[in-house]
Amino acid sequence: MAKQISFGTPVNDAERWAFAMLADELPDNYILLTNVEIPTKSGQAMEVDALVIGEWGVYVVDVKGYIGRLDAGLHAWSLDGRQVDNSLAKANYVARVLAGNVKHKIPVGVYAPWCQGMVFVTGRKGEEIELEKQQGSLSIYTPSQIVAALTKEWGLTAPRKHQVTDKQKQMVLETIGQVALVEQRNNKIQDFVKLKCLFIQSGLEVWQAEYSPGGWTAPWLLKVLVPTQFENSDESLQYELRLRDEFKRLQTLAGCSGVPQCAPLIQDGEQLVLPIRMPRGVPLDVLEHEQLTTYQLLEILRRAVSGLQQIHRRGVTVGGWQSNCLFVSDLGDVEFIDIKDNLNASQDIAAFAASFLSLAEQTRQPRIYQWFRQAASGSNTDLDMIRCDIAALIDNGVCDTLPERIEIASGAIIDHHYQLEQFIAATEHSQFWRARHLQGNYPCGVSIYAKVETDWLMLSSLYRSLSKLYHPHVEQVLNFGQLPQSDELFISRAWERGVSLDELSDIQLGQPATWFTQLLSALQYLHQMDIYHGAICPKNIICSDDKAVLVNFGIGLDIATSHYARRYADPQLWAAEGEAEKDLYGLVASFIATLTPVKLQGDGGQAGIIKALHAFDREWFGEKTFDTCLKVLNFEFDVGQGVNYLEAFDASDLLE
């Protein structure tokens, strides 16, 4: 592509098309001056359509938009039988004038470049033209030969052929005069100065520019639309509508983080310009994210999610997710510079997650990179979830991976917040500890799980479910994460004061009914949201004077097959029953086992618990409550949609 400097405005479509063609097809080291004036000794100036400073010579090109059959001779021309001007004679005359001017500028010992005239007959944009030259050496060419004539040695009419040196080119430019000023003028659009062309195709150009209204400057991008450079008016109109739509989108998104600012459209009659502030930072594909800390990675992800959320809330999607269109600053700001609004929200989130997945995995935080993996596959579109998780990790003081693995023992500190104090229970793949929150100085519970990949989906789902709900009779989940240099996960929980149901030394009249009713209401709430405990037994029910709480969610079937739960729910029975039925069975069996002598329970299995139930007085127990408990123990209680547990157990009046 030649360097084009426009001194004036093309006077017709033929010139516009010819200049565009020459600029596109001539080599990079060529200079194309259009609509330039050549000074004469008398002080007058002769306008030249195009002046090409090339490898073999300097060409004065006269552009003619003739359509039809042109018969060109040395002295006279005719177009379809009609006499027309001999343009080559004029071009040759101007070339001689230019050559004389250059000779006066050139110092002694330096040769002047060869200057010659040339005629470019365009036809109708390269078609509908037929040329017949009476002499083959005449410098008259159609679009099929013009570029070759300007770039090849055979196009010269000089008796001796020498290549034009850089110094000779400079002398020609000095002879023309004010070339640098004209170039500067051409590169200025209002207060924006074009610096570097980043993209050019047909009539669409993207320039790196500088905004300099006074004593300060700021970097900008200019999207320039030149209608005359397109093949036809329909294509030009299509691109113009796209540019106007982009301006409307950026105006709609003004104030959103992640969206670059834009200035009003500039239309000066020849071009349409959309100025966009240059994004800060570097593109995502060249970001050296391996050097970033976990905090920095999380901050980048947080700002990216927040920006995407704000864009979606205004009814727009990004669409342009190429890594070179995503910019990250030193402070972690993320900007999207190609907002197309061509996807739906779910597709946009999936594309976003795929673009930032490598950064998420580098954080080594399971709940972060697992969300990005799921979202990239289209199975998770909850931006609120990941934004809250990232913010929580930052606020809770998540640090980079420690150099040493944590040994799970009394005194160990988990996630820089929880110091283990007392071992409570364990299974093959999990442990439960009483711990203390170091900063808050309050007791809490910490469950630790081995085999991250095996248990991840279950534990992640459980944590997210429990962290978003509150019920006074369900333990409160505090945090979730992965231990450093390990495949072990942890979940921290609020510590419930009291003792487990099987450790109660003194039970007051009415307390069991109150506790049982509270836990029924908790199960009703959990089951309505498809959350199940999976291992209800006396060890997982913590009681105080007037309150009972379900604890130890997540150990699940580990506990169900341990010595605690085996007495209250045979795993073989559980395998054939639904999740809700299992929880109800565990709740009923736990209270019956606690309130009856061990000798009535046999081995603590289903038959023993049913036998213990029959030891109660039906009237004292309540006929309806007794019958429902018996159905639950026999797995005859059908937990269908709309079933009210409190009504089924005749316990509605007991709930405060």
E-strand count: 28
SS element count, helices: 19
What is the CATH level 1 assignment of the largest domain?
Alpha Beta
Q: According to CATH, what is the topology of the largest domain? A: Trna Endonuclease, Chain: A, domain 1
- Fraction of residues in helix: 25-40%
Distance between the termini: 84 Å
Low-confidence stretches: none
Give an overview in words.
- There is one protein chain.
- The chain is rod-shaped, with a radius of gyration of 41 Å.
- The longest helix is centred in the middle third of the chain and has 20 residues, at 233-252.
- A six-stranded mixed beta sheet has the order 1-2-3-4-8-10, with helices on both faces. A six-stranded antiparallel beta sheet has the order 11-12-13-14-16-15. A six-stranded antiparallel beta sheet has the order 20-21-22-23-25-24, with helices on one face.
- The chain is 34% helix and 22% strand.
- It has five domains: 3-185, Trna Endonuclease, Chain: A, domain 1, CATH 3.40.1350; 191-277, Phosphorylase Kinase, domain 1 (2-Layer Sandwich); 287-396, Transferase(Phosphotransferase), domain 1 (Orthogonal Bundle); 401-495, Phosphorylase Kinase, domain 1; 501-655, Transferase(Phosphotransferase), domain 1.
- Helix 7 packs antiparallel against helix 8 (345-362), helix 12 runs antiparallel to helix 15 and helix 16 packs antiparallel against helix 18.
- The chain is α+β, with helices and mostly antiparallel strands and 656 residues long.
- The termini are far apart.
- It has 19 helices and 28 strands.
- Residues 10-121 form the NERD domain.
- InterPro entries: Kinase-like_dom_sf, NERD, Prot_kinase_dom.
- This is Serine/threonine protein kinase.
- Residues 418-656 form the Protein kinase domain.
- GO terms for molecular function: ATP binding; protein kinase activity.
